[in-house]
Design brief:
The structure holds two protein chains of two kinds. Chain A has twelve helices and no strands. Chain A is mainly α. Chain A has one domain: ABC transporter involved in vitamin B12 uptake, BtuC (Orthogonal Bundle), CATH 1.10.3470. The longest helix of chain B is centred in the last third of the chain and has 18 residues, at 170-187. Helix content of chain B is 31%, strand content 25%. Classes of the chains: A mainly alpha, B alpha/beta. Bound molecules: adenosine-5'-triphosphate (ATP) and magnesium ion.
């Protein structure tokens, strides 16, 4: 067991797992409570399109995935505001197009299918020093911004109109939240994998809500669950040699079910 | 010039291509207790939301205490929304909901003073018993009281209340109306209250605004509920049967 902590790539994976678990647990409470979990799934499709383009062009995938995902995220918020277009439909189409682009670029370049595999399903073996640096930087940003904005986001999550009567710039705040969620999704894609990112962002928060009596409690617990499941999932996936994303999600689901049952019994 | 609590000039609100409020001109004095009465869909809530700067008017001007809406301090206006649905999945208790109106953000950790203030306000509206209860466990009437406590907490100069006593039992309704009237009388706070209860309006308020897209009547409560005014306000609904407009007498 102890040997895995001395492996350099495992140490990197562990730090990345802890950071991503914490920040996705934190932002996840807003995703769950605002009922925008489609955002997570959708944006991970968008991010994948960017990653595939990067692989195809031989550029560091993050460099393309970040602007690509942000562009799509803001298009989405914009479309949501335009009530006369059916937001659901246009967003659905947008994400599928991004995904289709990704698939085509990957198909054009078969040498990199192993890489593509790690972006689809997540792989702890592929966390580079560069990935670690990006995740650390983003986590720091989310921690700082999150500390300032938690009370405002929470308020407008509960009731945007009330928040507006308290003179909060609800729209701007929402853009900032969306921006951070989009960035988180892009940097998580390698560890968790595109297919499971949506769940990664919502399960800890949904689990935390079952037992929390205040939104603050829910936030703390969600962060904790995010960290625990990421560490546990990474270690497990190393031993059973399975994709890390899948193992993390299964672990989170088990925690969710266990809590549901415990609450039922009480 | 007398300084009004609220003055609207040619206030018009359109949503899509529908005119919701048509050229509303009212001057509400400081200390007035105004009932806003009108049929469903007549623009009452829209009028309040325009005052609260939640909905932008298509045309016209609103001044509150002589100021433009974006110059009003948060907390100067206390608002009780027309509660149909709140997000009951949001984990929170009554104390937190009350404090949101004072601190203008959601509180994670609450100080001793915060809790004391919230409890004081909840006591004022007879809701102290469920201070620590989850909002998801509150009944409609209990929730109305918590919202009222929330709106008192910031020590507002103007109360904007959208059917604060709807959905509560009769005794509770009378209590809520009395609490509001007392608040209005003792502190000279201006109150705007949407209500479907003409009797309550008649007994508690000094001004009435009859609204049906256009302003049908604005003036003293005593002269408001004439048959003609009420016909003008409500008759478009096409009631075939004769509606008798009158006031139930109060105990
Ligand atoms: N967001 C909106 N989009 C489109 N139409 C709206 C919107 N909000 C209100 N309306 C329309 O504006 C009109 C006035 O609505 P409002 O809620 O102000 O009525 P109200 O007098 O408060 O009614 P009630 O007594 O039922 O509360 C209605 O015809 C309604 O359909
Ligand atoms: Mg209304």
């Amino acid at each position: 067991m102890s040997e895995i902590f001395s492996l350099a790539f495992m140490q990197r994976a562990m730090i990345v797992g802890i950071l991503l678990g914490a920040v996705s647990g934190f932002l996840g409470v807003f995703v769950v409570q605002r009922k925008i979990s489609f955002l997570g799934s959708g944006l991970s499709h968008a991010a994948f399109g960017g990653v595939a383009l990067g692989i195809f062009l031989g550029i560091e995938p993050m460099f393309l995935a970040i602007p690509f995902t942000l562009l799509i995220a803001f298009l989405m918020v914009f479309l949501k505001k335009k009530a006369d277009i059916s937001a659901d439909t246009s967003i659905g189409i947008l994400f599928s197009v991004a995904m289709a682009i990704g698939i085509i670029f990957l198909a054009l370049n078969e040498n990199y299918s192993a890489d593509a595999y790690s972006y689809l399903f997540g792989s702890i073996l592929n966390v580079s020093v560069f990935d670690l640096a990006i995740v650390a930087a983003l986590s720091l940003i989310i921690a700082i911004v999150g500390k300032i904005y938690w009370g405002r986001w929470a308020y407008s999550t509960f009731d945007a109109e009330l928040a507006r009567t308290s003179k909060l710039p609800v729209e701007t705040d929402e853009y900032i939240l969306t921006l951070l969620i989009s960035l988180l999704i892009v940097v998580s894609i390698k560890v968790v994998g595109m297919l499971l990112l949506g769940a990664y962002l919502v399960i800890p928060a949904a689990t935390a809500r079952i037992v929390s009596r205040t939104f603050f409690q829910m936030t703390l617990l969600s962060v904790l669950l995010g960290i625990v499941s990421s560490i546990g999932g990474l270690i497990l996936s190393y031993f059973v040699d399975l994709p890390s994303g899948a193992v993390i999600i299964l672990l989170q689901a088990i925690l969710l079910i266990a809590l549901l049952i415990t609450k039922e019994i009480k | 010039m007398p300084d009004f609590a609220i003055k609207t000039s040619n206030l018009t609100v359109e949503i899509g291509n529908n005119i919701i409020l048509d050229n509303i001109n009212v001057e509400i004095n400081k200390g007035d207790f105004v009932a806003i009465v009108g049929p469903n869909g007549s623009g009452k809530t829209t009028f309040l939301k325009a005052l609260l700067n939640i909905i932008k008017p298509t045309a016209g001007e609103i001044k509150i205490f002589g100021k433009n809406l974006d110059e009003i301090e948060a907390g100067d206006i206390g608002y009780v929304p027309q509660i149909k649905t709140i997000d009951r999945s949001f984990p929170a208790n009554a104390i937190e909901l009350v404090l949101s109106g004072v601190r203008n953000r959601w509180l994670g950790v609450k100080s001793r003073e915060d809790k004391k203030l919230a409890l004081q306000m909840l006591t004022l509206v007879g809701a102290a018993d469920y201070a620590k209860k989850q909002i998801s466990e509150l009944s409609g009437g209990q929730l109305q009281r918590v919202y009222l406590a929330r709106c008192f907490a910031s020590n507002p100069k103007l109360l904007v209340l959208d059917e604060p006593a709807t959905g509560v039992d009769l005794v509770c309704e009378a209590t809520i109306n009395e609490i509001i009237e007392e608040y209005n009388k003792e502190r000279g706070v201006t109150v705007l209250m949407v209500t479907h209860d003409w009797t309550a309006a008649y007994h508690h308020t000094n001004k009435v605004m009859l609204l049906n897209k256009q302003l049908i009547y604005f003036g003293n409560t005593g002269e408001a509920f004439t048959e003609l005014n009420l016909m003008k306000t409500f008759s478009h609904l096409g009631h075939k049967h004769k509606v008798t407009f009158g006031l139930k007498s109060y105990e």
